[in-house]
Amino acid sequence: MRVLSLLAIPLCLSAIVSAERPANTWPFIIVRHADRIQEAPETMKRILQICMDNPGSVDEIWLADSSYRTPEALKPILDKMNVLREQCDDAGIQLSFQQGITLGHSGNPAYAKKVPGTTPFSEKAWRVNEHGHIVHGLLCPRSPESRQHLYLYAKTILEGLKPNSYWLDDDLRIGLSKPCGCFCDLCLSEFNAKHGSSYTREQLASILFSSKPVEPLREQWIIFNEESLAGFAMQLRRAAEEVHPECRLAYQSIMSSALGSGRTFLPLLEALSGPSGKPVGIRPGALFYDESIPRDMTRKSFSVAREAERCRKASYVAQIAYENETYPRHILQKSPEAIMIECSLMVASGCDSISLYWYVVGEHEPIEYYENFAKTTAQYRPYLERIAASTRKTRLGGMARALGFNRYQVEDFSLFDPNESLLAHAGLAVTVEEADPQAWILTMVSARSIATQDIEPILDRPTIIPEDVFGFLLKNHKEALVKCLPDAEQALPNLAKAVAMGAIATVAKPGDEPKFATYPIQDGMTPDNFKCGAVVLPTAKGRKVALVQPIAAFPLANRRRAYLDVIDIVTDGAFPVRLETCHAARVLPRIDADGKVDSVTLLNHSIGETPNLKLTVRNPRTRNAQWLRPRMDPVPISADAGSPVNAPVFTLPVLPGWQPGTLIFVD
What we know:
The chain contains 17 helices and 26 strands. It is of the alpha/beta class.
């Protein structure tokens, strides 16, 4: 029975959520409802009405199920879901599905029992950890039983619901709160067969989890894991081809710095795409559950940016939808506007759409909350769409940490780097290594991944090296470092002298004496309390390397300025942006295929207002610019009088605390 109250669709809705929307159109705003929303049809009608009363607040709704149900047990649930499908069709909103459990989120002894309505897995289907213990609740990705379960489960949903898209949950992973691999007899046998080895479980585990900083076997294991997950995911494509081939298939990923599941998620996505290369989607996100530590969203943005830059290079990845993580969604986790601010940062970091958590049966919020959520989302939509339009055709610009040959061989199966966030909070343009950065910065995470053969190719690009990292490289790769950087052994003493003088020391060509250019001392300062400096050295090939003081959690303005100055020196003034601020701010320039700046998004990471910000933009796409803010009309903005043609300086309006703004260049 159709819901008559939903037939009175406002005319203005047609431009954004139209019943005539083609089934294969990828939506911009997605709402994910948790399990059992089909058990609350009256609430669903109310929620849909709220969405319709706020045009543009949602394009697609996901239903979800988190169980190992058999096809027979799924059928009565599908009957109820199809009632919701009719309601969504009437509202002009796409209806899709997320499989909330694939390999399992955690071990649970209850799964050792055969529960009616769930697949009766044998003991051979479950994962085995490195100690030889069966972990009930976590399926082995190579088990024929687990793969057959996914195939039958997905086929039942695809045939019975005909969703527009079908998303696999991020429990399709290895490691990250789970054993870092499966050590069952089948996995051991197939790993040994692939590599011509004969490791026992104990031998393999002792090598993989040793305290040795670099172990080549780890990379082989990581590749094996990504192949395991791809083979499992392939069962969804198999089911779709049989009963619903036009359905969009997609995957919700975990942090890109976690290596247990593989080097990247591209093999898994390629498996979902299938031999014909059908378009698929990815939903990067994970963690940052509440706004108690709001700057933590910057840490998350690097994972999102890394995934986005990887996937944008793959022709078969058609959607990168940000996962705003509030599950289960409680009102005290994040306010609606906090969620939208976070989404602004993630869209500027590389996503082209957003997904939001809404209703959870049994955890009902007052209906006014959902009304406010929909209203806020609709108000932010025009701003988010403008950023996304720039994001889709550009890459994220700035400097990035460099990684070396040993990146997948590290002892903790993680490439997480807190220094990325520390630098970004200081208003420096920091990007990811996949985005063709304008300069490298070497961190200790970089250093431990670097092999001797990496030194020359890394230093063939403008590079910044903190003092502690330089000392590590000099100790471990001295011969290669001195070959590329002839003045390397004099660099640390010269840095100490530059710091004492408050100066930047530059060496014109290898073997020259450094020239020290001191900073002007401000009123009330003395050289003793202005201990800030850097050394810029030429490489044997004529590139420039800057040796700087260690990365600080809370740098003083003079050290921040020294970082900006050496970035400009080593890049010969070609770095995309320079932001002058004494407040915490994230700055994200988007660079087009011609190397021009298309837009720059800023987020005030402070509680209070910032004063007007000075932003220098090198090589903008055009000098015509607009200043965009959520809920506000675009404002034309001109470069400061007398600023250079190829490096105009813009005075940006005040940004209130925790608010974003975007400078976008328009024709």
